[in-house]
Structures are given as structure tokens and as C-alpha cells.
Amino acid sequence: METEIDETDRRILAALQRRGRMTSAELAEAVNLSPSACHRRVQRLEKNSVIRDYVALLDARKLGLATTVFVEIKLAGQTDDILDAFEKAVARVPAVLECHLLGGAADYLLKVVAEDTEDFARLHRQYLARLPGVQGMQSSFALRTVFKTTALPT
């Protein structure tokens, strides 16, 4: 069942995506609601999993992970067994931030972080090359991040 999202909910979601640590009172003021009405709406959005979680966004460079690599994976087949085995294994690779099943020339696209190219080579040997069902891989290194956001349009 899809949750009805009105304009007030959209303002709440936009404000929380910009600054998730604001107090309930600050949020209520930002969206022009009473604190109790705002709190009820946030609780409803959380209960219906529109708001999935609250997280801290870390600076990868400051943690020594300055290299982002996009890895296209081609599998040996498309059976449920092959897809399931790959998905379970790739979810355990610590440097993989995202994994997307694709329609097109590649089967999956991974977003991987590493310290540098040498570290990525280690990750490739230790983890990626050992993933089940992989027939081929192509890696593209990000030269520069033009922009990056986690905020969805509201």
C-alpha cells in the first residue's frame, strides 16, 4: 500500500534530507507546523517506511578512500541460482557501496571505494575476481566527482 504524501510531507522530507539532526521543534518551525502535528507526520512517514533510516554521511577522502570505481559485471548466465549466489556474495564485500542489477550489456554495476589504484587491485584480486558466476568485469575510475547527493526529489 502506497503512502499518501502531501505537500507538507514533502516539505518535512526535504528539510530532513538537508539537515537530519535538527530537533523536532526546529523541523516544525521550518515547515510551519505545530510541533505535535509535525511529530505525528514524521512518525507516520517512519512507520510507513518513507523515512527508512537516519545516518551520518561520511567524507570518504578524509577516511582515506579517495578512489571511486564503477565496475560492470557480466555473469555467465541469468538463472536464479547464479543471480542469487552473486548477490549474496557481493553484499559481503566491504568496499562495495552499491550494487545494481542492470538491463543492457552488463548484468550488474558496482560502486566501489578504495584508497588508491593499488588498493583497488587488492580488492579486485581478493574479492571481485572471486565472486560466483562472473564471466567478465570492466572497471572505470572516477576522475572527479562533479556533484553527489543522497537527497531524493520531493
Automatic annotation (TrEMBL):
GO biological process: regulation of DNA-templated transcription; response to amino acid
GO molecular function: sequence-specific DNA binding
SMART domains reported for this sequence: HTH_ASNC
Keywords: DNA-binding, Transcription, Transcription regulation
One GO cellular component, as annotated: cytosol
Presence of the UniProt keyword Zinc in the record: no
Residue span(s) of domain HTH asnC-type: 5-66
CDD domains: HTH_ARSR
InterPro entries: ArsR-like_HTH (IPR011991), AsnC-type_HTH_dom (IPR000485), Dimeric_a/b-barrel (IPR011008), Tscrpt_reg_AsnC-like (IPR019888), Tscrpt_reg_AsnC/Lrp_C (IPR019887), WH-like_DNA-bd_sf (IPR036388), WH_DNA-bd_sf (IPR036390)
PANTHER family: LEUCINE-RESPONSIVE REGULATORY PROTEIN, TRANSCRIPTIONAL REGULATOR AZLB
Name of protein: Lrp/AsnC family transcriptional regulator, leucine-responsive regulatory protein
